[in-house]
Design a protein that fits this description.
This protein is an all-alpha fold and 242 residues long. It has one domain. It is 74% helix and 0% strand. It contains eleven helices and no strands. The protein has helices spanning 4-29, 33-36, 39-46, 52-75, 84-116, 131-138, 141-151, 161-185, 191-196, 201-228, 230-234. α1 packs antiparallel against α4, α1 runs antiparallel to α7 and α4 packs antiparallel against α5. The longest helix is centred in the middle third of the chain and has 33 residues, at 84-116. It is globular, with a radius of gyration of 19 Å.
Length: 242
């Protein structure tokens, strides 16, 4: 058994611990009645389910819980309990959602945050979410995905149709949610949409996000070939597989 599986288990455990602890801290902070009197904070917390960041945390926690269970079963010699469909789902889920979404959020969030945080993460949010929580939600997500990326044996799919279909569906669903939120409540989850909606910059921004996601998705296999070598990829990563 390759040692890579133990590195994966360590990374999965740390990631689940970080997200779990951070979720508890944030939930407790939202119990502070004094803070919740702030209308901006109250409005933001009422839209928790509309933030891509929150979706991504749910994606990562569900993926790493599944991955940890699969790898733990493998280490304990019970990998026969893992259906092939679950193994395939894990690979597809990681390639199309986990790695891609984490990289897109990281790449978009930090340059805009540094330029003008009010466009994505207004200062009033500091009343309820500390900078450490911000780091877990927007920074640690990429190292977590990269760690799994580095130690998970994979191969380039013969067809990218399924993965791309999942990405397109996710893009359409999320944009439907934010537009529905605007038509329902007159609000967008992120202030940048308020500034750009009704202008040419709104579709341009959406297009840039989509093509960034597409670029990240395709680039991961190029990067993977550099990391593992073409021969190992053709063999499905068997040289280092668990």
């Amino acid at each position: 058994m390759s040692s890579s599986i133990y590195y994966r288990l360590a990374g999965q455990g740390v990631t689940l611990g970080l997200h779990g602890a951070n979720s508890v801290v944030m939930l407790l902070s939202m119990q502070n009645e004094e803070i919740m009197k702030d209308p901006d904070v109250k409005r933001m917390t009422s839209m928790q389910s509309r933030y891509l960041t929150v979706w991504n945390i749910a994606f990562q926690m569900s993926y790493f819980a599944l991955a940890f269970t699969c790898d733990l079963l493998t280490v304990t010699g019970r990998d026969n309990l893992i259906p092939k469909s679950i193994r395939r789902f894990r690979q597809t889920y990681f390639s199309s959602v986990i790695f891609t979404v984490a990289a897109v959020i990281f790449t978009i969030f930090w340059p805009i945050f540094i330029y003008d945080r009010e466009l994505l993460f207004p200062a009033f949010i500091d009343k309820i979410f500390s900078f450490k929580s911000n780091l877990v939600m927007h920074f640690c997500i990429l190292p977590a995905a990269l760690w799994e990326f580095a130690f998970l044996p994979r191969h380039t799919p013969k067809s990218h149709r399924l993965n791309l279909g999942i990405m397109v569906a996710l893009f359409v669903v999320y944009n439907t949610v934010i537009l529905h939120t605007y038509y329902e409540r007159g609000l967008f989850p992120y202030p940048i949409f308020h500034h750009t909606y009704g202008t040419i910059y709104f579709p341009i921004f959406q297009a840039l996000v989509f093509f960034l996601g597409l670029t990240v998705y395709l680039a991961q296999f190029k990067l993977y070939s550099l990391l593992w070598g073409k021969e190992k990829i053709r063999n499905g990563g068997k040289a280092k597989s668990s």
